[in-house]
Amino acid sequence: MTNLSRCPLCGSRKATRFFETRDKHGHREFEHCPECDMVFVPRRHHLDSAAQRERYLTHENDTDDEGYRNFLSRLLDALRPHLLPGASGLDYGAGTGPALAVMMREEGFGVQLYDPFFHPDESVLEQTYDFITCTETAEHFADPMQDLQALHRMLRPAGWLGVMTGMLDSWEGFPGWYYQRDPTHICFYSKTTMEWIADQLSLEVHFPRENVALFHKPA
Questions:
Q1: What residues have CB less than 8 Å from 85, skipping those under 6 apart?
Q2: What span, in angstroms and rounded, lies between the C-alpha atoms of 139 and 23?
Q3: H/E segment holding residue 70
Q4: Rounded distance between C-alpha atoms, residue 42 and residue 29, angstroms
Q5: Measured between alpha carbons, how far apart are the two ends of the chain, in Å?
Q6: Residues 144-158: pLDDT tens digits?
Q7: Cα(130)–Cα(26) distance, integer angstroms
Q8: Distance (Å, whole) CA 111 – CA 140
Q9: CA 219, CA 214: separation in Å to the nearest integer?
């Protein structure tokens, strides 16, 4: 296979063409990196900011929706046992309806919000936190290592980073996977990818639930 783009996570130039689609959203190519096991969409196929924002506005992230709360509880239930009462955190990529932040505030945790489109207060990125949540956000990162390094810097010693994103057990299922059909999804992680990230950032990683990765920063 011909070498193509530089991997946006690890920087390797060993990525090879993996898959491509042509649908109502247009033509998209997907490449696979053998170094960190990420599948990614090359930058030439990324939506511009206006198109991304329009797509995000179609998401139904109602903070009072029981089904959505149940969905987010997969991460909350996994993270809660590791947090001290009153711990302070950041919901990174909170979106239009920051339901997880609302749920955590209801349990007595302090939660700041950041989202480049809907909660763009960058002053919260200058603080440090006991925990950071990143739900259905990491798949949108154009420069995932840059974002992950920023999250690592904001995480206090002994802190926890909870990431929820779609993960397949095998890339063989990628062509039929609904997750790759969203035009704003441009990075796809496996457990191997998450373990590579943990190693690079000197974190421990656990997989307590399907599609949930918990990273722990040493004290």
A1: 108
A2: 20
A3: helix 66-79
A4: 7
A5: 44
A6: 999 999 999 999 999
A7: 41
A8: 22
A9: 16
Find where tokens 């932040």 sit.
101
The mean of the pLDDT values for the chain is 94
Pairing of strands 155-164, 129-135: parallel
Which DSSP string corresponds to 158-197? EEEEEEE----S-GGGGGG-GGGGSTT--EE--HHHHHHH
Domains annotated for the chain, with CATH where assigned, are 16-216 (3.40.50.150)
* DSSP conformational letter for 93: T
Confidence of residue 60 (pLDDT cuts 50, 70, 90): low
Q: Check pLDDT > 50 for residue 1.
A: no
pLDDT score at 127? 98
Fill in the amino acid letter for 141. F
Q: What are phi and psi of 150, to 5 degrees?
A: -65, -40
Using one digit for the tens of pLDDT, what is the confidence trace for 82-92? 999 999 999 99
For 190, residues 6+ apart whose C-beta sits below 8 A from its C-beta are 37, 38, 167, 168, 171
Instruction: Round to whole Å and give the CA distance between 206 and 124.
Output: 26
